[in-house]
Design a protein that fits this description.
The chain is mainly α. It has one domain: Orthogonal Bundle (DNA polymerase, domain 1). It is built from 4 helices and no strands. Helix 1 packs antiparallel against helix 2, helix 2 packs across helix 4 and helix 3 runs antiparallel to helix 4. It is globular and about 35 Å long. The two termini are about 25 Å apart. The mean pLDDT is about 95.
Length: about 100
Amino acid sequence: MEAHLHDYITMLRVERNLSLNTIDAYKRDLKNYVSYLEAKGLSSLKAIKQKHIRGFIRELSDAHLAPASISRVFSSIRSYHSFLNAELWVENNPSQLLEAP
């Protein structure tokens, strides 16, 4: 999963020309997300389901992360899954039908 995350961060830097602070926030959010998935025993991007995304967001909420921060994390996750789907690394985007927290 780390290789695809690296590709995504590179795309943000090169194609979307985002600020370094924004890229760092995406990277931090998504590294935490990937760590959560790996801790749940997931090693394949194709195995990620909506329940995993919901579980991660729930953990952030339980940790009393600010609602604005949780929204940013969710946006990062949704963007990452859209990228994975567009690059054909996954067939489905599990974040697509989820409502923002």
